[in-house]
From TrEMBL:
Gene3D superfamilies: alpha/beta hydrolase. It comes from the Bacteria. This is Esterase family protein. PANTHER family: DIACYLGLYCEROL ACYLTRANSFERASE_MYCOLYLTRANSFERASE AG85A, ENTEROCHELIN ESTERASE-RELATED. Pfam families: Esterase. One of its GO terms (molecular function) is acyltransferase activity, transferring groups other than amino-acyl groups.
Length: 275
């Protein structure tokens, strides 16, 4: 694989930013690394990072480069900052950036297929939320999506109160996080029913059988977002006609868990032949 740090100017954000991109190589002589079949264009996985990370983190914390080497898959990892892939109530338009500008720029610079059947999105934690949000809002664009330890029930964040009697340092941290969430999503009333509310989008979006994304969701049973993932899984199964493959087991909010899950997601994405 070739690894490229693509630095570019974002008109949407008004700043210089970056994406890390893995490109297939057809070489046959690299020891320990398989090459891929050479094509004019390649399937693409948009792989999103978590709250405290950036576009380089997937390649530094996991073996994603090795996992995709033989698949002939381009992996685009944009810097999403701490924006929850959302047009903030008070801040930047990270949703317009990730949903529209990043794919347009990536397709301009790299040999990316524009076929829906060859377009996938995945992410961890905040990125898991972003991945599901993209697939549910744009089912005509994404064949499948995967979330690992996703922050999927944002309403629970907005409802959360600082526990009475909490350590002052912990209370200050929780209050700061809650304020950050409100700067991003607004009040609970602003959030419910909006394009940011995964539950509302999954319920209200009309999707034909042709444009119904396949969903993969995974969360460790020791993860602090475990209950959020149960809430989302049960809603998808009981309240929508979408299909979700859900995987859980021992694991916390760690790279040891996500490194395993991204391999499972790649197998899930390849479950149906690319056309």
């Amino acid at each position: 694989m070739a690894r490229i740090t693509c630095e570019f100017f974002s008109d949407v954000l008004g700043i210089s930013t970056s994406m890390t991109v893995l490109l297939p190589e057809a070489g046959k002589h690299r020891i320990g690394m398989a090459g891929s079949v050479e094509r004019e264009t390649y399937p693409v996985l948009y792989l999103l990072h978590g709250l405290s990370d950036d576009d380089s983190t997937w390649t530094r914390r996991s073996a994603i480069e090795r996992y995709v080497a033989k698949l002939g898959l381009i992996v685009v990892m944009p810097n999403g900052y701490r924006g929850f892939y959302t047009n903030m109530q008070n801040g930047y338009r990270y949703w317009d950036y990730i949903a529209h500008e990043v794919p347009k720029i990536a397709e301009h610079y790299f040999p990316i297929s524009k076929k829906r059947s060859e377009t996938f999105v995945a992410g961890l934690s905040m990125g898991g939320y972003g991945a599901m949000k993209l697939a549910l809002n744009f089912p005509e664009r994404f064949a499948a999506a995967a979330s690992f330890s996703g922050a999927l029930d944002i309403a629970e964040h907005l409802k959360a109160e600082v526990p009475e009697g909490a350590d002052p340092a912990v209370a200050a941290m929780l209050q700061a996080l809650r304020q950050e969430q409100m700067n991003t999503f607004g009040s609970l009333e602003d959030f419910i029913g909006s394009e940011n509310d995964l539950f509302a989008v999954a319920k209200s979006k009309t999707m034909s059988a042709e444009y119904k994304p396949r969903l993969y969701q995974a969360c460790g049973t020791e993860d602090f977002l475990y209950q959020q993932n149960i809430n989302f899984r049960d809603f998808i199964i009981n309240e929508t006609d979408l299909n979700v493959l859900y995987d859980e087991g021992p694991g916390a909010h760690t790279w040891e868990y996500w490194d395993v899950q991204v391999q499972k997601a790649l197998q899930f994405f390849m479950g149906e032949p690319w056309k």
